Amino acid sequence: MKKVLTIGLITLALILTHTKGVFGKTESSVDIIASNLQRIYKLLEFNSEPWNTLAELCDNFGPRLSGSTNLENALDWIEKKLREEGYDSVWSEEVLVPKWVRIHEDCEMVFPRRKIMPISAYGGSISTPVDGLLAEVLVVRDFEDLEKNKALAKGRIVVFNPPYEGYGKTVQYRWLGAVKAAECGAVAALCRPVTPMSMNNPHTGVMHYEDTVPKIPFASLTEEDVLLLERFQNRGIRAKLFLKIETRDEGTSPSRNLMAEIRGSTLPQEIIAFGGHIDSWDVGSGAQDDAGGCVASWYVLKVIKQLGIRPKRTLRLVFWVNEENGTEGGKRYAELHKNENHKLLFEFDSGVFPPVRIGFLGPDSIWKKVLSFQEFLAKFYPNVKIEKGGGGVDIFPMTKLGYPSGSLGTDDNGLYFWYHHSHTDTPDKVQPKDLNDCIAVMAMFLYLYSELI
Ligand SMILES: [Zn+2]
To answer: Are 202 and 220 in contact (CB under 8 A)?
Structure first.
């Protein structure tokens, strides 16, 4: 077996016991680990299977909004495959998820000229009156601008036009826009999509109502149309829109978190749970958000199984449900598993692009060991840095109880939010090599974590 030790690894080797190797001869456990990393890399290097699986999942089932048949069919398909792949256990746990249905949406500018404007109602939005509504628009830059022009909002459609200043900052307009506009007497609200770049596509996402404020319909316009409406307003022309949105709130519906496990050889009670969220918005096919994270996680388990690697600790793959509009999957997981000995919860939900970062949050004693993984990874992925700070929406209910968390970060070059929550989020946006690299980095990190913490 090829020696792959670096100087730093020799030190680590000294503190590890000698054990029986995968090929039956006695080797240091670091040799075995290093050899397994090499095998993981080789198996994925020119492997077309992960991307084909991603495309099949997205193409055959389409978008997977909570409560939809698409989602349940996708889960059935994955579960069947997991069973065929022969893990130690495959099971699912019921989760009640909200069921909101988009039925129909139309927006047309009728003054100063006619123009169809593509829209995407935000998840949870109520309908307009059955015959739609006709109203002038008030374009505002931000909440402050709305406050200043409050008197002009009454009876109008408020159109928010916040420039993109990063997702975390700009998304507040999508979350709170309907409440703020309704407080000023608006009959509906529309918003510039939360994206750094637009090719005339609206972007949906979750929104919020307050019980004490009237509910009004709320949707994303395209950036191009928001800017057009603003230019009219700047010239003193008050554009008029016809808006018709039909949605239905169907309460809750049973869905599930899906899990598969390779049980640990010597520390089976110590669990490393990792995965992505299998639900998506009801547009595009949720390829980047988050079929990519799910398929990458799936292949982590599959590759480890295929290579006959038996980790020390239990590796638990989780397909969390309902991240997009309720996070019921993450909450349910914590409810059912909070007393199990989780050594790590790891989430991949940042888009499949070249991997550049593994974030970790946990006790200092583990952090020091995690940092030593950098040397193992550097042989294959010198650009991937291990840094403090890592988490995810689905694992948050567990990590807030004090369990260590981790996540994979990718270099999207700004592209992720171009596609995010829109019809453009399809498998062609995922590069097969990026997917393989994400799988390899995750598999290496989680395997190292299992063996060395
Ligand atoms: Zn996501």
So the answer is: yes
Separation between Cα atoms, residue 393 and residue 349, nearest integer Å: 9
DSSP 112: S
Q: What stretches of 283-404 adopt beta strand conformation (E)? A: 313-320, 341-347, 355-361, 385-388
Distance, CA of 154 to CA of 287 (rounded, Å): 40
What's the CA dihedral at 129, 131, 132, 135 to 10 degrees? Answer: -100
Contacts of residue 14, defined as CB under 8 A and 6 or more positions apart, other chains included, come to: none
Question: What is the pLDDT confidence band of residue 79, given thresholds at 50, 70 and 90?
Answer: very high
Distance 290 CA to ligand 1 centre (A): 5
Ligand 1: centre distance to CA 350 (Å): 7
Active site residue 323: yes
Residues with CB under 5 A from ligand 1 (ion): 289-290, 349
In angstroms, the CA 315 to CA 294 distance is 15
Band of pLDDT at residue 16, cut at 50, 70 and 90: very low
Q: Which of 323, 324, 347, 451 is catalytic?
A: 323
Domains of the chain, each with CATH number or no CATH: 7-88+263-452 (3.40.630.10), 99-251 (3.50.30.30)
Q: How far lies 179's CA from each of 105, 208, 416, in Å?
A: 20, 7, 28
Cα dihedral value 359, 361, 364, 368, nearest 10: -20
CA of 152 to the centre of ligand 1 (A): 37
- Residue 9's pLDDT is 46
pLDDT at 11: 42
Distance from the CA of 266 to the center of ligand 1, in angstroms? 34
